[in-house]
């Protein structure tokens, strides 16, 4: 399982010698995210000399995308935007990169192994499927994103779609002013590297060279696309459905035992609202875009609430707690006797309260995927599952401290 990375600036990552087995030349890689269980990884690679290797078979589903420079595959040269998908176990042609070329390089479900072969007529692995894909993405046209929900202004170029698993790689562009004020989670993971532009959202700033890897079901959103729009190379390990949330809140806390001032008896509590207090927050232009997103949804006939920036207005967690307390009183938790005193002093009660089951809404366990506790991914709550319409929609996962870098990983918990 890869960690939740949100957001890192690639410039904050160190360089390693590139793990490109069997190639001739020098290259370095930045490891944006790595799964040490199955070998999957997302890399930024720079070629310091001309580099190449002959025909062979990759041990992982492998992708190359040229950010700058040139690539030659099977004798044909491609420039910026070139993309190659090489399935695991399928013979591929010779590939070379010119000195100074910068690429994104992905390996999925396998290690960096590469077995040289005489030609692409060599036999495939028994379990191999799909064929090699070579695309000049710069020559492709942008299509409107087909998924209903967000306001217009988002466009897509499909580079690869696995017909069995739904795993797909695409370029996505949000035009300036594209906005979505709702938080979303998905049944699949989502990762993206920003290749152009600038977008703000609840986890921070997405601009050139920023990257995130978000496991399935982690909430994210409140998007506003800035001047010039923004473009990403984006990947998911299954079909992406948007499940939206509004009026979101989180509160957590506890009592210290052996830390804190004095004798350590420190009670503390924090909410997502508190994390927004005193923070820079959204600009007036951002807030105007977010309000426009609300109006768009209302015009579509959707039930929608005004967008309220975290740290302003009423703390929604307090409203939720008050409602839960009302429900508890109705259940007899504290309504079967009257006394006007506080509980912050020490005394013994010779009576017991009835057990209380406060109403916090749906039990998240009732929303689990049918296989979530039994399949071979059951050890990872944030792993994606194949989802189809009619299945229970799983509850989101709280991930309050993702991996983030020192320069771009600034966020205030907006929406968490």
Automatic annotation (TrEMBL):
It comes from the Bacteria. Pfam families: DUF4437 (PF14499). Gene3D superfamilies: Jelly Rolls. Residues 334-354 have a biased composition (Basic and acidic residues). Residues 331-364 are annotated as: Disordered. It comes from Actinomadura chokoriensis. InterPro entries: DUF4437, RmlC-like_jellyroll, RmlC_Cupin_sf. This is DUF4437 domain-containing protein.
């Amino acid at each position: 399982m890869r960690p939740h990375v949100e957001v890192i600036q690639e410039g904050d990552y160190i360089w390693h010698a590139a793990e490109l087995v069997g190639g001739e030349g020098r290259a370095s890689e930045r490891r944006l995210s790595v799964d040490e269980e199955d070998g999957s990884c997302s890399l930024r690679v720079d070629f310091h000399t001309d580099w190449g290797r002959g025909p062979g078979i990759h041990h992982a589903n492998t992708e190359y995308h040229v950010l700058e420079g040139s690539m030659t595959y099977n004798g044909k040269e491609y420039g910026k935007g070139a993309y190659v998908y090489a399935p695991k176990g399928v013979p591929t042609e010779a590939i070379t990169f010119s000195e100074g070329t910068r690429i994104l390089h992905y390996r999925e479900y396998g290690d960096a192994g590469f077995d040289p072969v005489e030609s692409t007529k060599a036999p495939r692995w028994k379990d191999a499927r799909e064929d090699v894909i070579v695309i000049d993405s710069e020559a492709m046209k942008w299509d409107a994103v087909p998924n209903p929900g967000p306001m217009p202004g988002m466009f897509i170029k499909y580079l690869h779609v696995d017909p069995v698993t739904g795993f797909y790689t695409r370029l996505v562009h949000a035009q300036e002013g594209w906005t979505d004020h709702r938080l979303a989670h998905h049944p699949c993971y989502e990762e993206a590297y920003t290749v152009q532009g600038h977008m703000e959202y609840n986890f921070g700033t997405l601009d050139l060279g920023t990257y995130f890897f978000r496991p399935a079901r982690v909430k994210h959103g409140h998007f506003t696309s800035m001047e010039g729009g923004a473009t990403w190379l984006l990947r998911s390990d299954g079909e992406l459905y948007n499940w939206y949330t509004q009026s979101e809140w989180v509160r957590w806390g506890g009592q210290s035992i052996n830390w804190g001032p004095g004798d350590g008896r420190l009670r503390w509590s924090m909410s997502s609202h508190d994390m927004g207090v005193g923070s820079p927050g959204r600009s007036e232009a951002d807030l105007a875009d977010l309000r426009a997103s609300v109006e768009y949804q209302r015009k579509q006939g959707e039930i929608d609430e005004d967008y309220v920036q975290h740290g302003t207005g009423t703390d929604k967690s307090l409203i939720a707690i008050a409602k839960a307390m009302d429900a508890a009183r109705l259940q007899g938790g504290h309504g079967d006797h009257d006394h006007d005193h506080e509980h912050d002093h020490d005394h013994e009660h010779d009576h017991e309260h009835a057990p209380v089951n406060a109403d916090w809404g749906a039990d998240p366990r009732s929303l689990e995927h049918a296989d979530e506790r039994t399949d071979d991914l059951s050890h990872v709550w944030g792993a994606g599952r194949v989802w189809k319409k009619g299945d229970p929609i799983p509850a989101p996962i709280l991930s309050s401290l993702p991996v983030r870098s020192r320069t771009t990983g600034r966020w205030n918990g907006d929406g968490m």
